[in-house]
Amino acid sequence: MGVARAMLHDQGLPLHLWVEACNTTVYVQNHCPHRILGMNTPEEAYSGKKPDLSHLRIFHANVYMHVMKDATKKLEPTTEVGIFVGHTDTPHNYRVYFPDIGKTVVRRDIKFQEEKAMKCSLERELHLHADEELLVPKDEL
Amino acid sequence: MAGKAEGLVSRDDGKLCHRRLGHLHYGALKILQQITTRLPKGTLTQSDQCKGCTLGMFVKATFHEKDSRATMILERIHTNVCGPFSVASIAKHRYYVIFVDDFSRKCWIFFMQKKSKTYSKFREFKALVEKESRKKVKALRSDNGGEYISDEFKDFWKAEGIRRVLILPITHSRMG
Predict the structure, then answer these.
(1) In B, residues 91-130, which contact A (CB 8 Å cutoff)?
(2) Which residues of B25-61 are buried (b: 16+ CB within 10 A; e: fewer)?
(3) Which residues in B lie closer than 8 A to residue A23 (C-beta atoms)?
(4) Can you tell me whether residue B165 is helix, strand or coil?
(5) Quick check: A82 pLDDT over 80?
(6) Are the C-beta atoms of A27 and A86 separated by less than 8 Å?
């Protein structure tokens, strides 16, 4: 639960996304080393296969998706913008959230843009530190 | 003898020291006799039971984890339900149930709108992992939550031959 909380508050996300955050936590932690397994991953201990981690991305990264040709008119953009909120059991299939309509879908043809999420995280870090400085009583300065 | 209480001459010096030093345990008393001077002689033995200590210093039994690891996947599954969360998800979920395989430590998470769905989620989980690994779930370890001791759960356990391990109340450290 701590990891899920960190994911949500790192990006300043609405709390109703806790389900996606918990789901991602479980998925990611199944692919992380565990002390009891001698720093092996649970996934490998369970299935005996070495897990491939090339598909992991930052929670809440921006994604661009291809729209099926039938669903668009000739001059409309052929991409949709959403937010990455988790993995599915099939690698390289991702859960994407559309904040405007409040829906989550599973998509495959995706381009990630993690820079914005990374920048947002770093900026929030700076912001938090700025708040800490304000909390120091004046006579101690 | 110096330091001995009056009228307690016939009593054991060790017991006296034990009480004077705030019911100090006998191991520490032995050391104290070596590193200090003029402490009344005599040591406590383990059979000496002080009523005050029994009533006031009783602690929880330590939890030995090492003797209870599973030796293959799905031999033992730990489970717990969490919720209700104050904020519901988009699909109105307020609870989740988590299943942890004791051998591989792999987790599975399922989200629920009601706690009573735990039973159906367990069946879903069981079907999924048994087909995937071609092994059977042998034991399920949970707390005494109402969702685990419902009649339908009990019947399912009996029918499927799953050993259920309900941990004693208020011993959450035994949850996997």
Answers:
(1) 91, 93, 96, 98, 101, 103-109, 111
(2) eeeebeeebeeeeebbeeebeeeeeeeeeeeeeeeee
(3) 109, 111
(4) strand
(5) yes
(6) yes
Query: Given this model, what pLDDT does residue B95 score?
Result: 94
- Give residues with Cβ within 8 angstroms of B129, minimum separation 6: B74, B101, B108, B135, B137
* Residue numbers of the domain that contains B52: 13-56
Do B132 and B159 reside in the same domain of the chain?
Answer: yes
> B27 and B85 in one domain?
no
pLDDT of residue B128: 93
B89 Cβ neighbours under 8 A, 6+ residues apart: A16, A17, A18, A19, A20, B111
Question: Is residue B20 domain-resident?
Answer: yes
pTM: 0.73
Check pLDDT > 60 for residue B154. Answer: yes
ipTM for this model: 0.79
DSSP state of A71: G
